[in-house]
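EI: anyone free to look at a 499-residue chain?
SC: sure, send it
EI:
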Amino acid sequence: MVRVKVMVVEDEPPILLSICRLLEACGEDIEIVCRAINGKRALEYLEKYPADIIFSDIKMPVMDGMELAREVHQSFPDTQMFLISGFQEFEFARTAIQYGVKDYLLKPVSGERVHDLLRDSIAVIHRRHDDANRRQLRQIVAGEPLEAYNKLETDFFAALYCEGPFPMAAGVEYTTGRELVPAGQVEDFLAAKGRKPYVVQGHAMAERLVLFTAKSAAEAREEAASLYQYLSEKGQHQITLVYADTPIRDLEELAKRYPQLRGQIHRELYLFHSTFMTDAKSLPYEASYDFTQWSRGMLLALKTGGQDELLASTRKLAHILIHHRILQTQVITLLEKLILGSLSDMLSPRQAGNLIIEIQACVSRAQTPESFAHDLAEVLHEWSKTGPVKEQKLAGFCEKAAEILRARYRENIPMHELAELLGCSAAQLSKKFKEYFGISISEYMNEFRIKLACSMLQQNKDLRIKEIAIDAGFSDQYYFSKVFKKNTGKWPTEYIKEL
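SC: here you go
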């Protein structure tokens, strides 16, 4: 629990001592960081000893409580102020509110009254602290540079989990429509077990970064295993969870750990199989499966180009993956070598690159074995066709697709819905669009939205980043910042400063 820092300002020593005793009796999470005899001395102390809450008398020499409240309101707006008075006046209360004073107490000060005021104030301070930590967690996930990292009040342990396959193709995680266990439910599960939890979306939509308190590495392992079990029972997808078995005491340390945890999931995710592991060591790999017989069948299907034959072959692959633990990276490598080798005489270098991206996307959105088989078969069927599309026809088709995307940029229109409007399959749309524009649909839309955001900022640089993100069609402010940086070379805050 965060210790709330309190300052007491009172020029009469007996009253000062009495108030301090009342505060100390309110609980262990109260820390009296400073005592001052007047408002001027209190302001000097605040520079060295920041306080969350100030209890101050009104009538004091040099600088009284009302002047102190005004200075605190201007210079330390996050500090909550309570005034102590020996009399009750309406005009005083009205002025105090103007200076941001939360409430005031009448002498003699009641312990029950102090306790009630602290209870509400502490709740506000804890929420503010949690919001600050969550904000930095999202910035860490987005890769944003931070000037200073928040310290953690106690030992936390980190876990990273992925629901379903690990997204390896840019943008694919935003179009799958996966139903994930809500982060709020995961936090409630951990909180019910007495943990202090933070759960935020990872770099991709399918990931969640988790921080939780534990007294030891053994307790953390037990809690991580419990979370893994909960997600496996609650979710609709395989769960790959890796946790760090050494404590994290500040968010700067987490910023170094997060890419390591993500890299481990990337290397050790088994398609259609759940896995629980620690970051201390890698899991032993199983003996490689012999795909020779399956490869022969797939090569034959690619030569014929028949959709039924391709579907039968991709279903066999899905069956193998269900019954054997095959790394997702191995599946992608297998498909790339086999398919590119078979179609190499039909593809230009650019087309080959586009096909690799589509293969990665098929694996990255493999929610179920059957959906994976159908998705991969559809992509391969389109690429195995030898009839080239005429340039004029291709241009008209792709420009129409782009026109619809720009008109509906706020909706994140699903690929299959756009394909239906254009009278083609999702795989065919993806292939033609990339061939014509040289970038994927998600990349095209990100560029369009960022240009729109830049235009809005140039017209009104006082707009909040969250407002700009929503107006430009992004549902997540932190993903918007990451895309903005990628497209412009600057974070939104840097871009605004240069306007």
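EI: Residues 111-142 form the longest helix (32 residues).
SC: 👍
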